[in-house]
Amino acid sequence: MIAKLEPHSERLLDCCLQVLAGNSHRHNWFDDAETASGVLADQFRGDLGVEKKLIGLTRRDWIPTGVLMALCKGWPHSVFLAQWQNAPEDGDHLHEAGYLYTKYAAAKPWEMGGILEFDLGWAEIDGLRAPGLVRPLMARIRNDSLVTANLFDYLMQSSNPTVKASISVCIAASGSLTSEQALWYKEEVERQSQSRRPDFGFDILSQSQRAISVCLIESLNAAAKDLS
């Protein structure tokens, strides 16, 4: 509400920073951090003063997840973010929100397909952690048209059913399909319909195994509604 009534205001900034200041024990803290980081990025994207305030919420040994979310969405080229991303990795945090946000924020557009295919491999068999992949992924796709274009190229060249299911729905969910994308979706539906054994793959958005043709048709229908 404050974002609508007082856009770009100090009050809005302060409210967002308060939410992002720590990982609360409230059951919905993650959703609150997601919302606040999105508002902050939309309203103050690239503002060096706001970036400094976000970094001021961190300590040497602790960085609030919400701060990482906000930096990834609105300040993806932050030097602080790059330093955190280059810190030594350990297996305990590789599937956590903070790591995934920075991983996808730092990835080059042409690297996204391979990174996503790797992560879809563990997400398909780890139902508890798989939902945590969706928001970092979609935050990057929605904020970078080059990523969408590169993912589409990766999709066209892939024979992995899970890549086809997940990337096709993610591209459609990020915005309207281009004419080239819509044409390929239709042609792939036709190829699937002519196959004796249509492909099934893991759809990261629905968290389920689905027919590739269903993913494509639903994406086309959603894109048509966006245009109407």
Would you give an account of this structure?
By secondary structure, the chain is mainly α. It has a domain at 107-228. The chain is 66% helix and 4% strand. A two-stranded antiparallel sheet has the order 1-2. Helix 6 packs across helix 7 (97-106). The longest helix has 16 residues, at 29-44. 36% of the residues are buried. The model has no long low-confidence stretch (mean pLDDT 86).
Topology record:
Elements: H1 2-5, H2 10-20, H3 29-44, H4 48-56, H5 65-74, H6 79-85, H7 97-106, H8 112-123, H9 131-143, H10 145-157, H11 161-173, H12 179-194, E1 200-203, E2 208-211, H13 212-227
Helix pairs in contact: 2-3, 3-5, 5-7, 6-7, 7-9, 10-11, 11-13, 12-13
Strand tally, please?
2
Largest beta-sheet details: 2 strands, antiparallel
Radius of gyration: 19 Å
Question: Structural class of the secondary structure composition?
Answer: mainly alpha
Strand order of the largest sheet: 1-2
Shape designation:
elongated
Q: List the helices and strands in order.
A: HHHHHHHHHHHHEEH
Q: Overall mean pLDDT score? A: 86
What proportion of the residues form beta strands (DSSP E)? Answer: under 5%
| Terminal CA distance | 28 Å
Number of helices: 13
* Low-pLDDT segments, ≥5 res: none
Helix content estimate: 55-70%
